[in-house]
Specification:
Layout lengths: L1 H12 L9 H10 L21 E6 L4 E6 L2 E6 L2 E13 L4 E7 L2 E13 L6 E10 L2 E9 L9
Antiparallel strand pairs: 1-2, 1-8, 2-3, 3-4, 4-5, 5-6, 6-7, 7-8
Length: 154
């Protein structure tokens, strides 16, 4: 026991000299320093808004729904409950994500932004707000992530 205490005391006396200690931080700084930032003109664009690839958007008065699944949207109304499926292109940005396509002969746009949204008819608070445009007709609504069946790992 005394031998260990004496050894520890000797270790305490052998602290590195001040000249030896700066070498570690200097070498760490050399290996850990980040590369300089690229000039503003070559920086990557900001990350796009995280909107899932599958979700449902709804609107009230008039009622409508848009089920988004990857590159397809099924748009339905009370008059057309089966809906019409259209191919869309996902156009992301930092503030919103747009899904662009054609419904019939009119341009179709579903713009999704993050933030709490109320459908005005229930106490449900949705995580996304949407604006649906078909030609010149604009309607606002809300969106939620679809709750699919439990993942069974198959």
């Amino acid at each position: 026991m005394l031998v260990l205490i004496g050894a520890c005391a000797a270790c305490g006396e052998r602290q590195p000299a001040p000249a030896a200690r700066p070498e570690a931080p200097a070498s760490e700084a050399a290996t850990a320093s980040p590369s300089p930032s690229p000039p503003p003109s070559t920086r990557a664009s900001p990350a796009s808004l995280a909107v899932p690839s599958t979700f449902t958007a709804i609107g009230t008065e008039p009622f409508w729904a848009a089920k988004v699944a990857a590159q397809r949207v099924t748009y339905s109304t009370p008059e057309d409950q089966d809906g019409r499926t259209i191919a869309v292109i996902r156009n992301p940005s930092a503030e919103f994500v747009e899904f662009l396509g054609t419904l019939g002969d009119k341009p179709f746009t579903l713009r999704v932004t993050k933030g709490p949204c109320s459908d005005g008819m229930s106490d449900t608070v949705y995580p996304f707000s949407v604006e649906r445009r078909i030609g010149g007709d604009r309607q606002r609504g809300c969106a939620r992530v679809d709750q699919g069946p439990a993942n069974t790992g198959e």
